Amino acid sequence: QVQLVDSGGGLVQAGGSLRLSCAASTRTFSNVIMAWFRQAPGKEREFVATSWSGGNTYYADSVKGRFTISRDNAKNTVYLQMNSLKPEDTAVYYCAARGNTRPIPTTQRGYDYWGQGTQVIVSS
Asked: What is the pLDDT of residue 55?
């Protein structure tokens, strides 16, 4: 069982930055695949970014070059640095986790554990 607590959302102007954090309660964090998803009002939850062992990362095209996922295995924490934010980035952001597997999943169904979500609002 993995518990996830995500935080760091808020209100920011377009072009600004935010950093989200997700703390995980697990003894094997370095082997856990971590991801960020987001859900805008009236839309389905969508994949944003994922991080897995060896420093590997993968991003949705919509955030590539603007968002950076990183992790601190000593702190059992994954981060999402969001730069050059756009109004269309407005959503509730969720961190997600699952045990090691291949291929790396990029859909909700591929993840077993979820944070409670943190709201990001980007004003124009």
From this structure: 92
